[in-house]
Specification:
Elements (H helix, E strand, L loop, with lengths): L1 E8 L5 E4 L1 H11 L4 E7 L4 E7 L3 H14 L14 H10 L2 E7 L2 E2 L5 E7 L5 E10 L1
Antiparallel strand pairs: 1-8, 2-7, 3-5, 3-8, 4-7, 5-6
Protein name: YjbQ family protein
Organism: Zhenpiania hominis
Family: Belongs to the UPF0047 family.
Length: 134
């Protein structure tokens, strides 16, 4: 088993950042050919999604849809920090993803990539990758 720590700085209030390549680098370092990778965020306002990588408008539309359904400015939110929208969006995405490793690579569909989703930026963020052979 291998554990890798990643730090990144988001630049916008809401942002989706492709992190597939960093996971592939971790996988290459580990030397594991078959198993799983668990990717986990230590934050309650940032998570992960697997989605389309071909058209950047998909990421735009996803962020638009999240904001439309869970607006940043809503006077009915009661959380004192003012980021309830980010907690809700993260609950929808989830704080982790599990990826299948097969023949030394991530088993993805042709249009898929893994994205780190920050809904309360800009911030310094940390996520972990646990690679398990099996």
């Amino acid at each position: 088993m291998y554990l890798y720590e990643h730090k990144l700085k988001t630049q916008k209030p809401q942002q989706m950042i492709k992190i597939t390549n960093s996971i592939r680098e971790d996988l290459q370092k580990s030397g594991i050919k078959e198993g799983i990778a668990v990717i986990f965020s230590t934050h309650t306002t940032a998570g992960f999604t697997i989605n389309e990588n071909a058209d950047p408008d998909v990421l735009h539309d996803m962020l638009y849809g999240f904001e439309k359904n869970f607006p940043t400015e809503d006077m009915k939110y009661r959380h004192l920090e003012g980021n309830s929208h980010a907690h809700i969006k993260t609950t929808i995405c989830g704080p982790s993803q599990t990826l299948i490793i097969h023949e030394g690579d991530i088993l993805f569909g042709i249009w898929q990539d893994l994205y780190f989703c920050d809904f309360d930026g800009p911030r310094n963020r940390t996520y972990y990758v646990k690679i398990i052979e099996g």
